[in-house]
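Researcher: Here's a chain I'd like modeled. Treat it as a single chain, no partners, no ligands.
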Amino acid sequence: MELLIKEENGFRYIESGGTGENLMLLHGLFGAMSNFEGIINRFSSKYNIVVPILPIYELPIFQSSVTGLVEFVTKFVAYKGFSKVHILGNSLGGHIAILYVLANPDKVASVTLTGSSGLFESAFGSAFPKRGDYEYIKNKTGETFYDPSVASQELVDEVFGIVNDRNKAIRVVATAKSAVRHNLGDKLHLIKAPTLLIWGRQDTITPPFVAEKFNELIENSQLFFIEKCGHAPMMEKPDDFNDILENFLKEVSASKVDE
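Model: Modeled as a single isolated chain. C-alpha cells:
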C-alpha cells in the first residue's frame, strides 16, 4: 500500500486513514517509510497508521537530540488531536517512544519496542561516519540484519547519501551521542502502559540482553524473540513480527473492554 507524504503545519507524515485506533510508528536514524512497509500493509485497514517523519536532519544543531525529537512528536500528536495512540518505535524511535510515554502517560494506549536504544546500543562506533567509502557503508548497513541481503541497494544508497551530506552526518552523530547519554534505566519502572518487546535474537546493535533488561524493568511487559533476525525485525521477519504485534494489540483492546 503506497501512501503519499502529507505536509502540513511544518510536519511531514503519512496516514492510512483507517477507521480503527491510532497506531503511530517512530523510525530510527536511517530510513522511515521503507522500514515500516510490512506493518503499513498489514494494519492500515484496521488501524489509523500514522508515521511522522522525524526531523533528524533538519533540526538546528543545538536541538539535535532525543529530547528535541520528543518535543517534535509531542507537538505532532497535539496537532493531530489524537486522544490516545498505540506507539511503536524501532531503534532510536523506541527511545523517543519511551520518553514520550513517560511525559504523556495519559496519551498512550500501548507501547511496542523493537531494537530500542535507551539502555545500551552499539551502532557505527567511533569510526562513523566514514564518508566516501560505499563498501564500508554497505557492510555496516548489512550488519543491521541477520541476512545482509535484506539491506537493499536503495537502503544502502540512502544511508550513503546521509553520511556523505555533512549537515546530515553531524546531526546523526549529535543525535546518536545524545541517545547514549540519555540512559533510561532508572525511569523504565514508571511505564505502566501495556508494553510489547519484539527483538531479533541475532541483534548485534541492541543485543538480546538489552531486551531482557527492558523486560525486567518495565512491569507490564512481554518479550518475544525472533530467530535468525537482527536489529529490524519488522523489516527482516515481517510476518512473524506482525503476528506477534496483532495478537498483542488484540489483547490490549480486549482488556479495555473488560475494564
